[in-house]
What does this fold into?
Amino acid sequence: MPDSLTTRHISQQAFLLVGTMLVALPVFAQQVTLRGHITDTSNGQPLQGAHVVLENLLRNVQGTISNEAGYYELTQIPPGLYLFQVTYIGYTTHLDTLRLGDPLDLTIDVAMIRSSDALDEVVVTGEKESGAATLKAGLQRIRPRDMRRIPTPGPSGDLAGYLQTLPSVVSMGDRGGQLFIRGGTPSQNLILIDGMLIYQPFHILGFFSAFPEDLVSNVDLYAGGYGARYTGRVSSVIDVTMRGGNTQQFEGSASIGPFLTGVRVEGPVKKGSTSLLGAMRTSLIERTAPSLLGQDLPLTFSDWFVKLQHEKDNARCSAAVMHTYDRGRIDVDRDEVFRWNNTVVGGQCTGFTPGSVTLANANAAFSYAGNAIGAADRPERTAHVWRINLDVNFTYPLNETNIRWGTFLRADNLAYDLREQFQNINEEDGVLLEMGGYVGTELALDDHLDLIPSLALTIPFDHPIGLEPRLRLRWLPWGNPKQELNAAAGIYRQTSIGISDERDAGSVFTAWVSSPFGTEPTRALHALLGWNQQIGPFDVAAEGYYKRLNNLPVPLWSTIARFTTSLAPADGTVWGLDTRLEYQWKTLYAYVGYGYTWTQYTAAQDNFGVWFGDPVQDYHPPHDRRHHVNTVVSWTWRRFAASVRWQFGSGLPYTVPFGFDSLVPLPGLEESLQEAYGTPRILFDRPYEGRLSTYHRLDAAMEYSLALSFAALTLRAGVLNLYDRSNLFYYDVFNIRRVDQLPLTPYLSLRLTTL
It folds into this structure.
């Protein structure tokens, strides 16, 4: 801390002591509430995780941390003189003296000033706010700087690229945009953007999503064990908060590269309070692939996002709209064209209710998704889903804890035409209504143990009422956040589920349906236990997890290759270990993560017993990656930045063909045998008994920033699959054919940002 700041701090401490002694008479007044929000003075963006401390030399220190919207609140403060301090890494410490007592409800907003001198300041609690090793009972907080470290073939980092470096996340390949988190399927992931549901935000080219680094404020990823505020999904939660525009000045950027190009503009509508942010991106890889890769890559995607944000007094309101579009052939040798799109429109307000210490958050949103497979003019299968969602959430501080509760109302429209792919579910167009609420609290039993119990109540109109109790726990054995034990457990339900044909790993078509097995929804039980340890510049995290899944809709396998099948209910068991080691010293960052996952489904299939003598089949689904290793190293020096990433994955399951037979039609049997031997058919062994080859790849990138008179120019050069490994994308079991992922791929991207 600079000397001038230290001197000022000492003088203010002395003033507090003298002032407090002058006001020596006992004060039996009502207690005070202090609230406000913390922002960056240069652009008005909220700062999550800023440490706010009130200190009186004759009383205990009180403190809190700003939330994702930058808000903080301290309650039950005895009147008197205080030193008010706000700290945030990379910003100059804010110091002030306050005499609290009149009024009893006081708002103080703080705009923090960036300062390179403050980079080495000590945070009040000593806790990290984000990073790969900040894993706490399934929860990891992700910031834009975390995404920036991952080599991505674009002008900036992206959430999709970062998520694939985590031990708990499995990606099927560089195409398709499918993410499987701790044994769950993509349709079991709850993905929110500013509180609004978005169904499929990951693009058909797997490096990219609708969440680029320069638009994201923060992300909360729950790989399991999430609290009762999140309902309707049984695997994980990806809660994304998009930032607002610059409230102080206009700025923008333009970028171009072989994979995509984009523009961003933002600025104040009313300086200091209202801002507008707009961004648009579109892919170029379909046109550049023949010269860049020496092969066709018929993939196209685009997205655009607009957000209007207004802040006044104790409230912040925003309205946002996002649209994404994806189209392409996952396998260039097949005629199947996949298409999907998302449209999300809505708004939210967060602030303190008038004359109250309660923090309220209200959301209203409309979410739409559609996808299809087949020819452009006549798709074979189509599916559409939309949701209207209204929810209100409250946080009330009580003594040294918070009471959280809320309510929601949802209407889902599900429409699909599967053209007899699944014999017991072909076509539907209906509306599902669901309402409910939740309540939870944070109990600090002592300085070492925190409990967060919560309970969700869901009332679907077409399914039984459900109660979902959940518990999260944090224990500091030695009262120090450098050693921390975390645990979580809970029950989860999902009344609408996405179904796909997992027999074909190259398919990304998903149809959203209500439970196909009557009134029984998909259910899950989660249990997690983990340990976090800080040792100097090293952070270590290890977490074991268990999931029990019931009533999963899965396609039935036949020993004969055929397109049509039926859906059957299955039970799933998932358990695994997630370990991470993270190191950061000045400008050097390194991370190693290892994950072990064991996923098994059990399904009954009557005809299966005819071939193998057992009507019940146990199998490992195609996303059951047993071992997963990721390493990331990044380094910055002045205007240069460099990063490398190496990843390894053990082989994924596939179904092994073991022979052929011939299909001879009964009519004209004698003539058929005289002229031909029938139609050849492939015969398969038990589902997913084989394992594909292992997967590993090295990516590298280097970045250089150059300051021009009117803008900053950033050049990013890199290589995907640096040693040109022939990694298998998937094995086409219907045609007995191998499909590989991208070969060695160099790229150069440019980004111009106004100053």
About this structure: The longest strand covers residues 401-422. Residues 165 and 630 are 6 Å apart (CA to CA).
